[in-house]
Write a structure and sequence with these properties.
single chain, alpha/beta, seven-stranded mixed beta sheet, five-stranded parallel beta sheet, 2 helices, 28% strand, globular
């Protein structure tokens, strides 16, 4: 077994099993700051989020990651901009399988999420998707294809139902001590 893969697996296990559920955000922030590919200033990750290969997860500044989210960076990268709000139990996947493959081959790709994106409760972002700046992904939506900037997407598979205001100027700030 590759030593680098083994150590990465141990780091993921330790965070996902112990640190991720610890009710002091500062401890989670310190661990994630050392482990993730990037961990932006002012970013908040609530309890019980899971990271698969944290080195391939890149979080920008001032993001709010709610409880129970899954970040699948096993083979491909997840790159998230700044001021992104990700609702509880959302999943960002980078790897799956080709259903037509006789050998159950892997299929996947990087996931890129722009600035000031709002991802709702239990939304699922599938491998290889790019979400443009300012887009909204509704609760429970399953994003299978790229999303244009400022689009409002809902459903499974997600479809565009509107556009968001393009004059977004907010900076997120969520700093609870024990979440």
């Amino acid at each position: 077994m590759n030593l680098k893969v083994f150590i990465g697996g141990l780091l993921a296990f330790f965070y996902n099993k112990f640190i991720g559920g610890f009710p002091i955000r500062g401890l989670r922030r310190a661990y994630l700051g050392a482990w993730l590919g990037d961990f932006g200033n002012g970013t908040s990750v609530q309890m019980e989020c899971r990271f698969l290969n944290g080195r391939k997860v890149h979080l920008g500044d001032r993001n709010v990651i709610n409880f129970g989210c899954l970040f699948d960076g096993r083979k491909y990268h997840i790159r998230i901009g700044s001021d992104v709000s990700i609702g509880p139990e959302a999943s960002i996947l980078t790897l799956g399988h080709d259903p037509q493959s006789p050998v159950f081959a892997d299929r996947g790709g990087d996931v890129i999420i722009g600035n000031r994106v709002w991802i709702g409760y239990r939304a699922m972002i599938l491998p290889g998707v790019t979400i443009g700046d300012g887009a909204v992904i509704g609760a429970g939506a399953v994003v299978t294809k790229d999303v244009e900037p400022y689009a409002i997407m809902v459903g499974n598979p997600s479809r565009k139902v509107g556009e968001r205001n393009r004059n977004l100027t907010y900076n997120l700030h969520f700093d609870p001590r024990f979440l």
